[in-house]
Structure formats: C-alpha cells, structure tokens
Amino acid sequence: MEYIEIKTERLVLKPLGIQYLDTVNEYAMDKENTRYMLYLPNETAEETVDFLVKVDKEWQKDKPNYLTFAVIYNDIHIGAVDVDLYDGFGELGWIINKKYQKNGFAYEAVRALVEYLKDNLNIRHFVAHCDSRNIPSYKLMEKIGMKKTSERHDRRNRNSTESSIEYQYELWI
Question: Domain 6-128 has what CATH class?
C-alpha cells in the first residue's frame, strides 16, 4: 500500500513499524496502561517485535487486512490507532501511553482515522469494543458518534483472571 500520513491540528499518524519498538514497549508492556486490553500487556520485548514485524508486512501489501498507525505528538510517538478492514466495515482500536492520556489525543487520532477511511476507502460503518470498566474508551466512542449496540458477558482481558462485560459500539456515516 502507498505510504499514508494523516495530519490533525496536533498529531501526525504514520505507519507503525519496527522503528517504534522502544516506545511501543513503553506502553504495551505496562500493566496499568493495558489493564483493559484483550491482547496486552506484552510479556516480552520479543512479543512486541513479532507484532511490529507483522504490522510492517501488512503495510507492504497492496490490499492490507488492517492499518496500524503510530500517533505522533511533537515528534514523540505516544500511542497507536488502527483499523481491521472487513467486508463492509472497519473495526477501530487505539492505545495512548498513560503519560499522554487525558489530553484528547485518542479522540483526535480516531476521528482523523475515521475521516480518512470514509473519504479514501469509502468505509461508512465502524465497530469498536471495550471493557465496560474502561470509561474513557466508551466515552470516546460516544464522543465520535458511536452508539452502544451490544454487551457480552465473557470478555477475558490478558491482564486479568476474571471475566468482564464487553461493550460493542457502532457508527454509520
């Protein structure tokens, strides 16, 4: 796929890749930062390397199955935003390093990604999921116009031994 760079007022979204290993490790291996995530925290740096190699390979495809962007603020990599591309919809995800949370960066990055996907890939239906205890996550979904469409009672986050409730939100534009 061609190189994509999305700019907002404060952020630049660039293809995530192995060059961001250290900064991805900083948030992806942090148990507090990832407490509500299904597949995080990473236990080792090798897990992060494997993930970033897969992301790099995906960016090389003519028709990738997902797009994962580094979120850059003032030339600092502070998190990631991504979309899994399915037939007829995109599934959104994001993570921001805890040092940069509560500044609207996730909202700004997700909103920019949705607009890019609508304008350039004609995606008009979006889905996102979160742990019901992750209030900032579902508040972000609501802020971009998503509506809660379902709850599932058997979510198992990697960082927890107990199950929780998962919310699903959707947006049609």
Answer: alpha beta
Pick from 163, 128, 168, 132: nearest CA to 150: 168
- What's the confidence (pLDDT) of residue 101? 97
Q: Which pTM value belongs to this model? A: 0.95
Q: Kindly provide the b/e burial profile for residues 129-166, where b requires at least 16 CB atoms within 10 angstroms of the residue's own CB.
A: bbbbebeebbebbeebebeeeeeeeebebeeeeeebeb
In angstroms, the Cα distances linking 57 to 20, 41, 50, 161 are: 15, 22, 11, 33
Q: According to the model, what pLDDT value does residue 156 have?
A: 76
Q: Where are the domains of the chain?
A: 6-128
Helix axes 135-143, 105-121, angle to 10 degrees: 40
